[in-house]
């Protein structure tokens, strides 16, 4: 573009004054006023002002012009030296005398030409700087005269550093000679061998990488020089898009060719098929050259051409992607009609608008839909079937009718016998075995599929399923696991192969069978649970009734009789009884019975009952349940002529409290497997309740009884702390007494003789079950310790059973001690409690003796005999003065003042008196 394009050819020169003649040697001047000239500054190229104040003050006009335009040519016509001097100080262009008109004309022409060129150049630069493309101007030598800011954006070079350099700086070295030759030829001859409007080439970026660009050139003369201006545009993105577009077209061609679906491409306007892939040739049974040239609707049935033409027009006019699947078909060369689903999309291909149609053969899908509908019907039947047998029969029938599998059967697992047993089989074969037992190696196909949960398929294979060698023979066979229920065996002699279609639907059918069997099993479980809940509610009602009776019971015998009578009379069980094993002999003794005396008469004391559930329950402390009396080895001698009546199952429940077993509650039922987990838990809780009640009664009796049973026991060795430490340290331990903390911890006060306190403390720190040990005092060779037990302790076990500890002494050889029990307490239970902690314990002696109880008068007399007068006076005065109240009515100092003694003396007497009082009380 020429730099002067868009400017008026004739300069606008405004003349302010009275002597202007309208033209000055070819330069037209327009006479005007100062006000008009100032209003037209935007379009003026020069102002000439004659100085003639006051009418025309050229200096004032110059000042006004310079405020708005600092470069507009401004000439003053005057010969006044002072005016000239002032004008030059105000940046006037020049001053000329009134007689120098010719000189003025020459100066105006030069100034106007320069001013117009500068304005045009400024405008051009503003336009060029706003361009996104790079713009460069070179002279005939190739030297750069101008570059815009876009040059840096495109090529990375700073515009200022490019001025004066050669254009070859941005041209790759391999192309520089060609550029120089072309420029020289153009300068010398004006010959152009390339289209200057658009040349694609390569430019070199400042960082060294090459970028594809397009160049457009234009030459023009400027001040006598031939300049060439070029526009450089980065076409990297365009090249990338073109490359991707070509790659996309290539992918499209490959996808069409390799697509497994038939593809026909037809002209949108005419409907003529212009391309087809190999799948289309196979679908239509025609070669590609025959298909191309046909009209789209001609591949469909002739009688429906008009319908298919309308479908094609709808696709062509609608655009986008459209699908049609209802009652559509194509015709093969032999006339066979194939149902298809069509997906059509209008698109551009090689500048041509076409319809891209995908024809999917849905023959198999239609067949599958019919089969699926049949399977849906079978599924509805499966979901309404009430029993597992009905479910299996429906599934086997569907496999034969809908899948064409003549050999099929469903085998459900029998966990007890470890076999798969047929529930439903087809009538077409007699080779389905009656049952499939688990093989020794576990590798039978049916069991392998059942246990792995994976479908097994066998082709042209004979499999032995039975232990007797019977075979299931078919050309094709499948074994589908039915989760934990069993397996679905499927086979066919007529099919060459169980194709994927048959396998899929067989697995769908098997999945529905699994769901139906799950549902049937859930319903069976719910029904059983409802019956169980009814039974459990009845049991709970009986247990609540028993609990109420236990609260009012006053003896162990009453507790035992109440429980067995209530259980037997409730109608839930055949009979119930309470028994225990004798200490002296390994035999069972019945202590309470309700419902069957014949059974109890069979329990001879001399019988060996090591395997009896009752003996096991008492020994282990755990409930023992016999699911079926007629098959249990413990009842083998009674299975011909059973003394247990109609008993089919029984439960032996230990009557326990803490570690003591008071006996066994045995319940008999007239049905097998009568005691499920919930019922067992309820009975176990009943046994624990009985144990707690018996323990409470025995504890009460221990407090009020005048007679006791004294059992003397001896232990030679055990892991218990009290027994082991004296043997290891060769010393003697004597139990002074025990207390029990609210948290259940036992505090034992022990005297250790013949050993240092340090040795005892060191050994105690290593002992298990001891949470804390404290030295109370050490005098001579005797130490007193407080030992806190957090683990099992024979003291706690004895206290829980209503027993009282007499004396206990352990030395390096053995441990001896006595235990006092109520007259009706279980000696065996106490002995077992001790043996649980010290298995080597043995009874040395057992005797009955009276437990003397002192009266209050005897107690006071014994206490008075032990107190001195001062101790008695101090104790009585402190009591009467309220020293023991809380808060105290009198302090120790106040009581001491009453006694006329010092406070330390009072406290000494009081402590001694309190110690004697407590000793007298606890020694009782």
From TrEMBL:
Residues 120-190, 248-319 form the PAS domain. One of its GO terms (molecular function) is kinase activity. Keywords: Kinase, Transcription, Transcription regulation, Transferase. This is PAS domain S-box-containing protein. The keyword rRNA processing does not apply. PANTHER family: DIMETHYL SULFOXIDE REDUCTASE TRANSCRIPTIONAL ACTIVATOR. PROSITE patterns: PAC, PAS. Residues 324-374 form the PAC domain. It comes from the Archaea. The keyword Transcription regulation applies.
């Amino acid at each position: 573009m020429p730099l002067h394009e868009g400017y008026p050819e004739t300069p606008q020169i405004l003349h302010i004054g009275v002597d202007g003649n309208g033209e000055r040697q070819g330069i037209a001047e327009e006479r005007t006023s100062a006000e008009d000239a100032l209003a037209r500054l935007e379009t003026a190229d020069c102002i000439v002002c004659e100085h003639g104040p006051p009418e025309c003050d050229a200096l004032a006009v110059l000042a006004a012009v310079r405020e708005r335009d600092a470069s507009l040519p401004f000439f003053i016509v005057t010969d006044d030296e002072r005016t000239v001097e002032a004008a030059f100080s105000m940046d006037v262009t020049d001053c000329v005398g009134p007689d120098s008109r010719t000189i003025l004309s020459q100066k105006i022409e030069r100034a106007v030409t320069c001013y117009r060129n500068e304005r045009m150049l400024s405008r051009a630069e503003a336009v060029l700087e706003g361009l996104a493309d790079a713009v460069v101007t070179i002279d005939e030598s190739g030297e750069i005269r101008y570059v815009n800011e876009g040059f840096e954006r495109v090529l990375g070079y700073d515009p200022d550093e490019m001025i004066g350099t050669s254009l070859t700086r941005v041209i790759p070295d391999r192309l520089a000679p060609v550029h120089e030759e072309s420029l020289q030829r153009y300068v010398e001859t004006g010959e152009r061998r390339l289209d200057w409007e658009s040349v694609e080439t390569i430019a070199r970026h400042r960082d060294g990488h090459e970028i594809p660009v397009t160049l457009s050139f234009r030459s023009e003369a400027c001040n006598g020089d031939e300049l060439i201006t070029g526009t450089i545009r980065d076409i990297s993105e365009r090249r990338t898009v073109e490359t991707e577009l070509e790659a996309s077209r290539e992918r499209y061609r490959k996808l069409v060719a390799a697509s497994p679906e038939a593809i026909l491409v037809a002209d949108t306007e005419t409907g003529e098929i212009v391309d087809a892939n190999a799948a289309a040739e196979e679908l239509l049974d025609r070669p590609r050259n025959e298909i191309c040239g046909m009209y789209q609707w001609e591949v469909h049935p002739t009688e429906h051409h008009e319908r298919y033409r309308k479908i094609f027009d709808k696709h062509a006019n609608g655009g986008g992607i459209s699908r049609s699947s209802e009652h559509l078909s194509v015709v093969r060369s032999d006339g066979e009609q194939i149902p298809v689903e069509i997906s059509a999309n209008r698109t551009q291909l090689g500048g041509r608008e076409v319809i891209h149609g995908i024809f999917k053969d849905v023959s198999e899908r239609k067949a599958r839909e019919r089969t699926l509908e049949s399977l849906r019907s079978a599924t509805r039947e499966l979901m309404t079937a009430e029993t597992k047998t009905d479910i299996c029969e429906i599934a086997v029938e569907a496999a034969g009718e809908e899948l064409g599998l003549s050999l099929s059967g469903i085998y459900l697992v029998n966990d007890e016998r470890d076999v798969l047993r047929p529930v439903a089989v087809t009538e077409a074969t007699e080779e389905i075995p009656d049952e499939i037992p688990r093989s020794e190696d576990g590798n039978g196909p049916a069991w392998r599929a059942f246990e792995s949960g994976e479908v097994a398929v066998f082709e042209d294979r004979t499999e032995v399923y039975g232990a007797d060698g019977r075979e299931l023979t078919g050309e094709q066979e499948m074994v589908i696991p039915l989760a934990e229920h069993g397996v679905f065996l499927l086979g066919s002699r007529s099919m060459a192969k169980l194709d994927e279609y048959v396998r899929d639907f067989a697995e769908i059918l098997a999945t529905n069978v699994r769901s139906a069997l799950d549902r049937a099993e859930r319903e069976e479980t719910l029904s059983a649970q409802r019956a169980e809940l009814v039974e459990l509610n009845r049991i709970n009602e009986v247990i609540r009734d028993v609990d109420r009776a236990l609260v009012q019971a006053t003896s162990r015998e009453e507790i035992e009789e109440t429980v067995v009578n209530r259980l037997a009379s409730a109608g839930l069980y055949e009979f119930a009884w309470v028994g225990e094993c004798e200490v002296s002999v390994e035999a069972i003794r019945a202590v309470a019975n309700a419902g069957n005396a014949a059974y109890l008469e069979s329990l001879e004391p001399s019988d060996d009952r090591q395997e009896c559930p009752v003996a096991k329950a008492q020994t282990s402390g755990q409930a023992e349940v016999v699911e079926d009396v007629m098959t249990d080895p413990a009842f083998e001698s009674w299975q011909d002529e059973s003394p247990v009546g109609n008993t089919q199952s029984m439960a032996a429940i230990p009557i326990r409290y803490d570690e003591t077993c008071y006996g066994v509650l045995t319940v008999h039922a007239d049905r097998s497997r009568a005691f499920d987990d919930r019922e067992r838990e309820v009975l176990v809780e009943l046994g624990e309740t009985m144990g707690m009640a018996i323990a409470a009664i025995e504890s009460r009796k221990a407090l009020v009884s005048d007679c006791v049973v004294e059992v003397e026991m001896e232990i030679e060795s055990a892991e218990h702390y009290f027994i082991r430490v004296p043997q290891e340290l060769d010393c003697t331990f004597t139990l002074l007494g025990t207390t029990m903390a609210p948290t259940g911890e036992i505090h034992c006060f022990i005297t250790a003789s013949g050993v240092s306190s340090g040795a005892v403390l060191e050994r105690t720190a290593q002992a298990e079950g001891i949470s804390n040990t404290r030295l109370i005092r050490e005098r001579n060779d005797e130490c007193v310790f407080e030992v806190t037990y957090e683990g099992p302790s024979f003291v706690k076990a004895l206290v829980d059973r209503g027993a009282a500890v007499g004396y206990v002494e352990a030395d390096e050889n053995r441990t001896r001690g006595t235990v006092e029990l109520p007259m009706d307490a279980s000696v065996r239970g106490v002995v077992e409690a001790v043996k649980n902690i010290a298995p080597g314990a043995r009874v040395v002696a057992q005797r009955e003796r009276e437990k003397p109880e002192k009266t209050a008068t005897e107690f006071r007399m014994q206490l008075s005999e032990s107190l001195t007068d001062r101790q008695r006076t101090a104790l009585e005065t402190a009591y009467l003065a309220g020293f023991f109240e809380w808060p105290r009515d009198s302090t120790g100092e106040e009581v001491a003042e009453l006694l006329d003694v010092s406070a330390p003396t009072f406290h000494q007497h009081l402590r001694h008196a309190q110690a004697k009082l407590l000793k007298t009380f606890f020694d009782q």
